[in-house]
Amino acid sequence: MTEPHEQEQEVLSGQAEDTLIEQTELAGFHLEIRDLPEERTARHARALLRETLRNAGVHENDVDDAELAVGELAANAVSYACGPYEIRFVLVGGRPVWCEVVDGGTDLAGIPEIFEKLQEAETAECVSAEVPQDSGHGLAIVHRLSDGLCKAYPTVVSSARRPGKAVAFALPGNGLL
User: Fold this and answer.
1) CATH code (residue 148)
2) One-character DSSP codes across 80-96
3) Which of 27, 58, 125, 135 could form a disulfide with 173 if both were Cys (CB 3.0 to 4.6 A apart)?
4) Over the Cα atoms of the chain, what is R_g?
5) Is the dihedral of CA 65, 175, 140, 31 positive or negative?
6) Residue at 18 is within a domain
7) Distance between CA 87 and CA 50 in Å, rounded?
8) What is the pLDDT of residues 52-75, one digit of tens each?
9) CA 153 from chain center: how many Å?
């Protein structure tokens, strides 16, 4: 039997077998869905992302940036939405290209509009008064680290087979950034 601290290390290292919910392969696209426990959601998401990117040979600086982005999204999911929580990776030709943090909330809560305003401000090369000042800082970090390749949209929580939402971003080293 695995001791509690050994089990925690397995989960945080992404080696716990029970965290994988689903894997799908179709025409060179590979979708991997992993459960994020309600406790330590952001920490677990960062560990799984780190393992996925390092296994793909992504540069360490890019891994650090992606960890920051996924940590922000996972923290937001726990702060503003109910579980269950999941992390999804889309791989194309073996390269991780897209990451989604999924939660059981169905309200997009203005996230697409925040991303749009951040894009408009970036296009105008200035900070607009419309860019969130009191909230949305985590989304601004994700937007910046993904070069604006981020979205929020309705989805289905795979583990619960019920509606939810995904907040996602392009991963570094995928040819898009």
Assistant:
1) 3.30.565.10
2) HS-S-EEEEEEEETTEE
3) 58
4) 16
5) negative
6) no
7) 12
8) 999 888 889 899 999 999 999 999
9) 13
